[in-house]
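[User] Once you have settled down, look closely at the record that follows, and write a paragraph about the fold.
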Amino acid sequence: MFGYYLMLGVRSLRRNPYLTVLMVLTLAIGVAASVSTLTILHVMSGDPIPAKSERLFVPFIDNGARNGYVPGSEPIDMQSTYQDAMNLLRIAPAERGVAMFATGMPVEPPRAGSAPFQAYGLAPTRAFFAMFDVPFRYGQPWSEEDEARGANVVILNRTVAEKMFGEANPVGQRLRMGGEPFTVVGVLGDWNPMPRYYKLIGSGPATGEEFMIPLATAVRKELQPYGSVNCSQARDPGYASLLASECTWIQLWFETRSGADRADLQSALENYASEQRKLGRLPRLAPVELYDVMAWMEKQKVVGNDTRLSAWLAFGFLALCLVNTVGLLLAKFSARAAEVGVRRALGASKRDIFRQFLIETGVVGLAGGVLGLGLAVGALALIGMQSKDMAAVARMDWQMLALTFVLSIAAALIAGLLPTWRACQVTPAIQLKSQ
């Protein structure tokens, strides 16, 4: 019977085309508004590295001044000092540790006639690529020897590599960065996670890091950090003073072998903090904190209240569209009271009528889902045109694609419950007498 009722539902779409178009359009607009905002929320709040998000940790040791500090208050900055980062990389019981900071340099392409440009990149330690599962199109990470001596080696992203070298493999080629020759050792594959969970503090291009060089190289060249630098105490001018200061500007990550090793890492951090307090540092006596990926994203408010509010408003608009759809379905089904009366007189039960009309509303929902999907894709495209950051998150995956149809059909079925129930209450005798 389902196939028969489905055929009736498809035919009913042509019975009153204007009313059908109005219902489908109303439902599609509500679904498109909800799905487009929910898609952005889904991308921003999803687990960016599910295979190991419970094994990646950001430590926070508060080194701020005691003056004006209120215990329990939110810190101004949650990065690390250079000295803490280097010390913790040596002593922390972790499978991998990464220290990094954002920076930039002028780049001179090797092609004759190509204009120099300012590039923005990242200066991490070598474990960065294994820790965050970074794919390579060509080459590989720099060697441990290159890192130890702060060699002039660079890894380019795909866009910059093609801009300077075309489609050819540029590994081994040289270019000038910051006035010095650098050797290309690798080209990143398609890797631009959104949100950029590994570097939430600070800014950078929406297309991802344009280059990466060893942290030791950036320090040797005295490259300035691009992003947040917070100094709780006055320091002398000069780069050496920055390295030895209490200024926080290094982002630090650790990867453990399993989530159960978190306690060992926490204990090591607390022991380190205790030793530093004996040396007269860390005057706030704040507890040492450790955040996994999802907790870190929550702490940094990757999904803000504005995004959540937009999602709630979109679903409120969907509810308003459903109210209108209920009215349209009531009008549609009321006009078929005579048909229902005849069917009931011929032996159809209320359950049969209810099933038939509910399947018909499901057909309306399916049509609304198809149209809503097109409208949602168009809405996301318009949102993505606002900025490169929005373009990176305004993209629909297969989960949201499936949700579009599920939401549309479910919304139609919910909207059809009252009209369908009203249709089942038709009295056959009254309808037959009026014919």
